[in-house]
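User: I'm designing a mutation panel for Alpha-L-fucosidase and want to avoid disrupting the core. Could you give me a predicted structure to guide residue selection? Please restate the sequence first so the numbering is unambiguous.

Assistant: Good idea. Sequence first, for numbering, then the predicted structure tokens:
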Amino acid sequence: MSAKASAGYFNFLKSLKSSEWFWWYWQKEKREPYVKFMDANYPPGFSYEDFGPLFTAEFFDPNQWADILKASGAKYVVLTSKHHEGFTLWGSKYSWNWNAVDVGPKRDLVGELATSVRNRTDLHFGLYHSLFEWFNPLFLEDATNAFNTSKFPTSKSLPELYEIVTKYQPEIIWSDGDGNAPDTYWNSTGFLAWLYNDSPVRDTVVTNDRWGAGSICAHGGFYTCSDRYNPGHLLPHKWENCMTIDRSSWGYRRDARLRDYLPIEDLVKQLAETVSCGGNLLMNIGPTHDGRIAVVFEERLRQVGSWLKVNGEAIYGTKPWRAQNDTVTPGVWYTFTPKEGKVNAIFLNWPVSGILELGEPRAKPGETQVKLAGYRELLKWVALGEKGMVIALPQLTPQQMPCQWGWTLQLTDVD
């Protein structure tokens, strides 16, 4: 079953037996590794629906989840209320008993997490919802009719959307899975008009761009463009990099190896690069079938949180600067804090020489100040003509470093 959650600066959570696309790979594409795995480990006639009772979530503790998400430094969380398999994590009236209240956990997982997040954190609570369902007979019938009929959205998908908005009042609706059908088939404009004008979240809600074939990266409150989207340059529209800590999956994989998980250094790089280009980072983790956030995911989230405690001023409330990355030293990304008029230079490699050269800032002798986030004393620097500067970093032992995986220089009075 899928339980995708995202903590967003920055974050996503999903849960399935092996991969969130397992059913499709096994039954539709009949990929050999999946077919062999099922033949070797499950009795003949075992169906995907038989996994339902095995999705137990007996260790699901929404308060613990909320505490971990808060510790990550995230500002919003997005839980997968329903993925392409159609299983809902709340007791939907339109799910035909294919939901977490009637099968498996026998709990309203959406409602429990929403309550814990709102009671224990200041995170904005959002919900992911898949428009289509791979094997729903009504959707397949509409697809056969070239989407000239709309039995599925009328009786299933749209009623679910109205239901989760009315019941849980999410501040983010993260739509996905158009099934190659246009927005007119999904009546996306009708739903969005209600959402922004008449719904209980009309004054607070934000939506993404996945509302029908052709709408992605073209319409929406923020663009996602593609999974793991990272353009590396400034975009004129607000966007989000939705990516995964597991390099290969949006779900929990029991056979994953340590090398499959991105290290904290890569996550800091993705965060710095994304924010410098005007985006948000939605960092996906995959919970287990019994409701736990695996230790490796918890560690990564807490590591990001500890980094943000030192360097958060370079991330929160910032805007893109005139340059996104440095032209002289690779691995330096810039953000701008308008409140203090401060340019933040996030650098990922501490030079052995202790000297860092920046090619972009235009320093002002007698006015410019340079500070290392988490270090009290001002740093010495020398201007390089009209543009660029050389900065002397402090000589610190590893134990004295303000953080371990990337650092921020705060530059005031630079152009």
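For picking mutation sites, this is relevant: The chain has a mean pLDDT of 94. Residues 126 and 170 are 5 Å apart (CA to CA).
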